[in-house]
Write a structure and sequence with these properties.
With 123 residues, the protein is an all-alpha fold. The protein has 5 helices and no strands. The N and C termini lie far apart (94 Å). 11% of the residues are buried. Mean pLDDT is 75; it is low at 69-80.
Length: 123
């Protein structure tokens, strides 16, 4: 496979936004649905797959570079890394989801009747 950055037409120091913009532009051009009546639709489909692979490869590289982890195993099983960054990422995502999700019991879901007593002076 060629250099994924050259396939997308961006430089190696391009920002995530620039990469995403180039990927979306090329995906729209070479998407199979956009080339139904095109006599070279097989070439367009092949180019579309190539663009997708290039984008996925760049994102994997950036993700691995951001976490500083390139192993595939957990705790030394099946790979070279400890798996700590991946485990922490899962735990953080779970914690954020749980914090933002209210837990309601059947009692809380029932309508509560509230009675307010206000003493009134007799005149």
């Amino acid at each position: 496979m060629q250099d994924p950055y050259s396939i997308l037409g961006v430089s190696r120091d391009a920002s995530d936004e620039e990469i995403k913009k180039a990927y979306r532009k090329l995906s729209r051009i070479y998407h199979p649905d956009a080339n139904i009546n095109n006599p070279d639709k097989d070439k367009a489909e092949a180019k579309f797959k190539e663009v997708q692979q290039a984008y996925q490869q760049i994102m994997k590289e950036k993700e691995a570079g951001a976490s500083g982890y390139t192993g595939t195993g957990y705790g030394g099983y099946g790979g070279t890394g400890s798996g700590y960054p991946e485990v922490m990422a899962v735990l953080v995502r779970s914690a954020v989801f749980m914090v933002n999700t209210p837990i309601r019991t059947s009692r809380q879901m029932r309508r509560k009747k509230i009675s307010i007593y206000v003493p009134l002076p007799i005149i």
